[in-house]
């Protein structure tokens, strides 16, 4: 089983090192090869997604990614910026289905900014479309109008087939869970998402057991804070999913806990924490590696069909938390506060 390991920027290298440590401790037959992406790709080859990195990712069965981005690259031309490397690899590998589970570990109920009774038992799966929408729609750009004023343009567009294939992923996941989907759109204003709603309704005819509801994105943002446990599977487009998944992560105590899987039609996948590169804390050994370690568990589950070892990792994380180990972002009184690599060690010890 070939894994392309792309640590990226900021805290990427430290958190990925912990996930690699955990994977190695399982003694599976994994061939892991590292390559640069994002700012690291730009430094190494003048490109946030160097050809060699893309080729390695294409040849691999799965990709384990840290995070990309650093303020020091913000002044580069747009196509050279780290985020472009991430968006391109998603597009090139056709990773249209982004799964972001927001699961509250009971030990962390006190770490959420919401009241424990609002979040305890929380288990939401956000299914975010990842290769379409306003992120990729043409036309786009900044140009100068005839009157000399500048104008910025992005285009929200979704084709029927793009909506249907992400909808299908969500319905299949719902069938394995509580058979409830909430589709999030802005159908009262945006035609692209009016079509989204229509296609979801058409698709639901194939899944009579699944209860499909719809919610406008503004209301969904509110409901996630008001009563998050009403949700099971949420399916939404690229930009709404980007925003709502950050919001959902805070219900679980810290964005440092949220893993993700980005899958193509054949379950080849890229696995990365949902959080960013956090350059402000990079290199200090204080980042939370659990989202990345849990992403490695998702890799075993979705790409390698190895549910047993995925559960082993997830249970090891639970055990480390139950033993009181906490990184700074989830620290509470009386815990054993540890650094990034010590948290990795705690998970390995629990394995
Ligand atoms: C995410 C990130 C990315 C996105 C950025 C870094 C381009 O926020 O994975 O959620 O917007 O998709
Ligand atoms: Mg985001």
The CATH architecture classification of the largest domain is: 3-Layer(aba) Sandwich
Strand order within the widest beta sheet: 2-1-3-12-11-4-5-10-8-9
Q: What are the bound molecules?
A: 3-isopropylmalic acid, magnesium ion
Order of helices and strands: EHEHHEHEHEEEHEHEHEHEEHHEEH
Determine the CATH topology of the largest domain: Isopropylmalate Dehydrogenase
Q: Number of domains in the coordinates?
A: 2
The beta-strand count equals 14
Question: Distance between the terminal alpha carbons, to the nearest Å?
Answer: 21 Å
Q: What is the CATH superfamily label of the largest domain? A: Isopropylmalate Dehydrogenase
Give an overview in words:
Helix content is 40%, strand content 19%. The two termini are 21 Å apart. The chain has 2 domains: 183 residues, Isopropylmalate Dehydrogenase, CATH 3.40.718; 163 residues, Isopropylmalate Dehydrogenase, CATH 3.40.718. A hairpin with a 5-residue loop joins strand 11 and strand 12. It is α/β, with parallel strands linked by helices and 351 residues long. It has 12 helices and 14 strands. The strands form 3 sheets. The protein has a 10-stranded mixed beta sheet with strand order 2-1-3-12-11-4-5-10-8-9, with helices on both faces. The mean pLDDT is 96. It binds 3-isopropylmalic acid (IPM) and magnesium ion. Magnesium ion (MG) binds next to helix 9. Homodimer. One of its GO terms (cellular component) is cytosol. Its EC number is 1.1.1.85.
């Amino acid at each position: 089983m070939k894994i392309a390991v792309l640590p990226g920027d900021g805290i990427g290298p430290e958190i990925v090192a912990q996930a690699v440590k955990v994977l190695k401790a399982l003694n599976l037959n994994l061939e892991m090869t590292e390559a640069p992406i994002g700012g690291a790709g730009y430094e190494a080859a003048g490109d946030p997604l160097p050809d060699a990195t893309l080729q390695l990712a294409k040849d691999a069965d799965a990709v384990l990614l840290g995070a990309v981005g650093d303020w020091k690259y913000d002044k580069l031309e747009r196509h050279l910026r780290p985020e472009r490397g991430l968006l391109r690899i998603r597009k090139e590998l056709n990773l249209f289905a982004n799964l972001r589970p927001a699961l509250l570990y009971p030990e962390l109920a006190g770490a959420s900014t919401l009241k424990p009774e609002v979040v305890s038992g929380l288990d939401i799966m956000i299914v975010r479309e990842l290769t379409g929408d306003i992120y990729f729609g043409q036309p786009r750009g900044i140009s100068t109008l005839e009157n000399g004023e500048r104008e910025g343009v992005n285009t929200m567009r979704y084709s029927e087939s793009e909506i249907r294939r992400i909808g299908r992923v969500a319905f299949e996941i719902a069938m394995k869970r509580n058979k409830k989907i909430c589709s999030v759109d802005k159908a009262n204003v945006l035609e692209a998402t009016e079509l989204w709603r229509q296609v979801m309704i058409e698709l639901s005819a194939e899944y009579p057991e699944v209860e499909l509801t719809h919610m406008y994105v503004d209301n969904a943002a509110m409901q996630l804070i008001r009563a998050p446990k009403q949700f099971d599977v949420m399916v939404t487009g690229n930009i709404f999913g980007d925003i709502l998944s950050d919001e959902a992560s805070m219900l679980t105590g810290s964005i440092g806990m949220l893993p993700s899987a980005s899958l193509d039609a054949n379950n080849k996948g890229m696995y990365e924490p949902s959080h960013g590169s956090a350059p402000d804390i990079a290199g200090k050994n204080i980042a939370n590696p659990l989202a990345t370690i849990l992403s490695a568990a998702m890799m075993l589950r979705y790409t390698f069909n190895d549910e047993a070892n995925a559960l082993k990792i997830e249970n090891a994380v639970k055990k480390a938390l139950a033993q009181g180990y906490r990184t700074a972002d989830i620290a509470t009184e009386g815990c054993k506060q540890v650094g990034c690599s010590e948290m990795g060690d705690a998970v390995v010890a629990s394995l």
